[in-house]
Design goal:
Elements lengths: L1 H6 L4 H27 L17 E2 L1 H14 L1 H8 L30 H5 L5 E2 L5 E3 L7 H5 L10 E2 H7 L7 H9 L9 E2 H21 L1
Antiparallel strand pairs: 1-5, 2-3, 3-4
Helix pairs in contact: 2-3, 3-4, 3-9, 4-9
Length: 211
Amino acid sequence: MEKIISELEGTREKEILVRTEELYEKIKVKQEEWYKKSSFTCPENCGECCRNFEPDLLECEAVYMAAWLLENDAETAEKVAEGNFPYPENKGCPFWKEEASYHCTIYGGRSFICRFFGACGSRSKTGDLAFKPCKFYPAEKLAAYKIPLYHKQYSEEEMKKIFPVLPPVTTDIMEEALSLNPGKTNTVMLRKILPETIRRLQWLCIMNATV
């Protein structure tokens, strides 16, 4: 997103945007390794996990999503800034589309949770890595894995016996994400925070251009 990053030069939002992009790239690299070595991927064209789900966003996620829209789909960004989302009738995310690739019309700008879906582990209360297949993953496909899997939580030791690699861990990466928002660790629903964030970035770009 070279254009919007350049237009936000010298602002706090530019730093948040760059560091969030670095974390998203970190997730991508870890997930690509997981997919390649484990051969465990979501069923093609599934998208059930986000059909009726609206993400709540940290400030850094909202800044990235707003910047991605301004860079890649300025027309939609303008409409969203006014509170007009592409698919407002959706019970979940207003960017979810049945016919779209991955069912997401802002795939490159999606939030952390959307990137984690289907390929992530978490930390148990003791700090150990745990993994549970998505509840929407068809049971017959889980059973057909080279070592049959089930809709249950697997411990780190169990995973090491099943998979040749461990998945990325949500809590580890989210700790880094929270550091981008000191004092602002609360989240806000996408429909509320995104319009105002787009407007803020637009204003900052205008102010920068006049300096």
